Amino acid sequence: MIVAFSVTPLGVGEDVGEYVADAVRVVRESGLPNRTDAMFTSVEGEWDEVMDVVRRAVAAVEARAPRVSLVLKADIRPGVTDGLTSKVETVERHLSA
């Protein structure tokens, strides 16, 4: 499964980059395939391991912020691996045709 999620601290002002970095650090240290862009961090793996990473990323922000917003989208496809790469490659292939 692939989960794309965004963790946003609330009540800490406008500059939230350092809080988001705490969440992304958890994801990167998990060892699971992941990507971060301007809006979301995506992580790929089995249900329990991915959801544990999301939970810990939220907890990292929650430890420093009075309130946390979480947006999450999941692509649940048993048996599919390397979706983070293959989904993008498919789109790029169609764009180059």
From TrEMBL:
Pfam families: Thiamine_BP. Residues 3-92 form the Thiamine-binding protein domain. It comes from the Bacteria. One of its GO terms (cellular component) is cytosol. Belongs to the UPF0045 family. This is MTH1187 family thiamine-binding protein. It comes from Streptomyces apricus. The lineage of its organism: Bacteria, Bacillati, Actinomycetota, Actinomycetes, Kitasatosporales.
